[in-house]
Task: inverse folding
């Protein structure tokens, strides 16, 4: 259980974190998602105790940890660069946190080998290191130095070092970004499995929205030092709270129509007058419609008309750039077996109204919609509320 | 263009690129070393028309002659003092300045320049300053000592003291250089390692130093040791300007002996023999360092 209350951090005049409040339940998997420089790593360092907030509180297990050092908080951290000690073997790397906690200074010194207590503790450490190495499948690497390991192996050693002393929370700072694509997908599943198995709280920093969506129970989207939205991956995708969040989440970047007043929405996107709850939009305010490319598919009677500007064949799907009559360029996704037309020819696109996102143009905040199905003329007729 | 001709052209290019430097090395280093090695087996004197082969005589003199043995032991004592202290203080200053740089960057830069000044300054000019500072009656050092009722010794003319005085000047001169090397080494340590150490529980100063700083400085330290050691064995300027090896050869060292025998007494053969001994010293030292320490500091 981690809780942050109004955490603010400034570096000189720059405020990198503004009033961050969030909570992660015991055993849950929280992702901090954001572009580089949004403050997510600073937030992680504050939770770890490597950095201190200028104001606000950090609570771990309900206890304010402001006075505790990183080691006392009993957090484990996996770094993007793995941060293994290059002069120690894998076994010594994994054992170091145990030795630092378990043994007194005298026992750790050169004289330690003459002390019975130190020898007993060391045997216990060796046993524990073997056990952890076994769990992660790296027993055969124990005598090597980090310089002799591949990226994936270093990753496992870093996880083993974090795991070895049974930490209360796990902090991971972009742990997969130095791995190749295939290994990354594999390690993704392993880390989630680890979270389920040991039942500790995981906080995972990443700039890769696919990673965050795939792994986390809840995702905090961080933009400019604020939490733009904290929600489940599904909610983030289906109901982004602002244009910024909508633009950040999703494999293909979302389409936005040019800002327009309610009665002048671009062709194919006109909405019936009753779609907005009364009073939610002052008259004359401009709005933007957002629609994800994967929700915009070619259809014979589609309401959106344009010409094919560019096409990318990807096997399972085809990415289309469609230019509307007013010049707006929309991205759309067609299934891989779509009978393609020539570039420059007319394409008609259809969408389900519930996949439309409506935002206020000035503030970028989401507006709830009450859209009635069937406005695109291609699909069902029953009324379905949409937000 | 036929393949063979192309290969030939490429080979000529390689030769053209590497040739001049190789030639210069050959003419300026390897051939002179060979000549010196040959001369060390002769009784040749500068300007003489002929010489005789004397076998190992020159080397035997080096072993037997108390004056020559004095130069060798003096050099070893000098190096044994200068090497560890210069490295230790260089590291200490670098650690301090590195910390200071995080909260007072300007002060750190000024201090860094101050420590580096002895390296950049001409040692001969600095020697004059030292001579004035250490003058038994007029020098500032003894004046200051007199303030606390201590009668300062004659730093540069006391037989028992002169070598140690020179060693202190040698340390003063090399600390700045070692500091700069250590600072570069410190800057290259990835900060995540300190974070990892802090989380792993190594969060006190000493623990951080032994877990991260010292091991990560390994390659730098090796380089510093080699540079300091060769520099210490080559000590010459301070001896030549401040003591001329005196009093009574109490501060005679190898390179100064080479200079004196070769360029003052013109005994080229004997001087060459000392040169070969000096060369062997430095070579052995360097080989030993790389042989025994190289593999330990690069962690492969």
Result:
């Amino acid at each position: 259980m981690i809780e942050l209350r109004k955490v603010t951090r400034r570096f000189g005049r720059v405020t990198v974190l503004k009033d961050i409040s969030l909570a992660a339940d015991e055993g849950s998997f929280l992702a901090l998602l954001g572009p580089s420089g949004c403050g997510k790593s600073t937030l992680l360092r504050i939770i770890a105790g490597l950095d201190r907030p200028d104001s606000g509180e950090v609570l771990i297990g309900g206890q304010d940890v402001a006075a505790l050092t990183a080691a006392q908080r009993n957090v484990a951290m996996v770094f993007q660069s793995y941060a293994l000690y290059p002069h120690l073997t894998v076994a010594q790397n994994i054992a170091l946190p145990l030795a630092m906690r378990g043994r007194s200074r005298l026992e750790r010194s050169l004289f330690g080998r003459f002390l019975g207590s130190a020898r007993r503790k060391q045997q216990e450490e060796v046993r524990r290191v073997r056990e952890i190495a076994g769990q992660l499948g790296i027993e055969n690497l124990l005598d090597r130095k980090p310089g002799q390991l591949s990226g994936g192996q270093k990753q496992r050693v870093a996880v083993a070092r974090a795991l070895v002393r049974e930490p209360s929370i796990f902090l991971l700072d972009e742990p997969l970004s130095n791995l190749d694509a295939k290994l990354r997908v594999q390690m993704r599943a392993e880390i989630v499995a680890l979270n389920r198995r040991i039942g500790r709280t995981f906080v995972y920093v990443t700039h890769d929205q696919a990673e965050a969506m795939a792994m986390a129970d809840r995702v905090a989207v961080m933009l400019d030092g604020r939490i733009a939205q904290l929600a489940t991956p599904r909610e983030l995708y289906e109901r982004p709270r602002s244009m910024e969040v909508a633009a950040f989440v999703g494999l293909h970047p979302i389409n936005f129509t040019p800002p327009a007043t309610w009665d002048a929405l671009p062709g194919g996107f006109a909405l019936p007058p009753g779609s907005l709850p009364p009073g939610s939009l002052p008259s004359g305010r401009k709005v933007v419609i957002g629609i994800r490319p994967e929700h915009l598919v070619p259809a014979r009677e589609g309401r959106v008309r344009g010409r094919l500007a560019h096409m990318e064949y990807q096997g399972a799907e085809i990415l289309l750039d469609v230019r509307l009559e007013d010049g707006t360029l929309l991205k759309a996704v067609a299934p891989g077996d779509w009978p393609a037309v020539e570039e420059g020819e007319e394409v008609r696109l259809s969408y389900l109204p519930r996949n439309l996102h409506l935002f206020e143009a000035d503030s970028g905040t989401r507006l709830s919609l009450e859209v009635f199905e069937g406005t695109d003329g291609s699909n069902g007729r029953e009324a379905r509320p949409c937000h | 263009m036929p393949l063979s001709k192309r290969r030939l052209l490429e080979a000529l290019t390689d030769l053209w690129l590497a040739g001049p430097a190789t030639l210069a090395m050959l003419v300026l280093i390897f051939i002179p070393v060979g000549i010196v090695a040959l001369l060390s087996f002769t009784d040749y004197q500068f300007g003489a028309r002929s010489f005789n082969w004397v076998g190992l005589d020159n080397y035997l003199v080096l072993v037997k002659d108390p004056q020559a043995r004095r130069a060798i032991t003096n050099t070893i004592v000098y190096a044994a003092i200068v090497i560890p202290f210069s490295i230790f203080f260089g590291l200490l200053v670098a650690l301090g300045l590195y910390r200071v740089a995080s909260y007072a960057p300007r002060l750190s830069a000024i201090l860094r320049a101050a420590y580096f000044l002895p390296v950049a300054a001409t040692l001969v000019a600095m020697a004059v300053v030292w001579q004035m500072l250490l003058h038994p009656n007029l020098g500032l050092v003894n004046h200051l000592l007199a303030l606390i009722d201590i009668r300062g010794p004659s730093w540069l003319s006391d037989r028992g003291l002169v070598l140690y005085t020179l060693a202190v000047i040698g340390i003063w001169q090399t600390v700045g250089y070692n500091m700069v090397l250590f600072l570069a080494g410190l800057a290259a340590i990835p900060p995540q390692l300190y974070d990892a150490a802090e989380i792993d529980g190594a969060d006190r100063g000493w623990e951080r130093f032994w877990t991260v700083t010292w091991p990560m400085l390994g390659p730098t330290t090796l380089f510093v040791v080699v540079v300091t050691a060769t520099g210490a064995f080559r000590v010459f300027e301070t001896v030549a300007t401040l003591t001329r090896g005196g009093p009574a050869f109490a501060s005679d060292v190898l390179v100064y002996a080479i200079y004196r025998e070769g360029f003052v007494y013109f005994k080229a053969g004997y001087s060459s023999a000392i040169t070969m001994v000096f060369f062997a010293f430095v070579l052995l030292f360097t080989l030993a360092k790389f042989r025994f320490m190289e593999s330990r500091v690069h962690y492969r």
About this structure: Residues 65-297 of chain B form a domain with the MetI-like fold fold (CATH 1.10.3720.10). Residues 66-103 of chain B form the longest helix (38 residues).
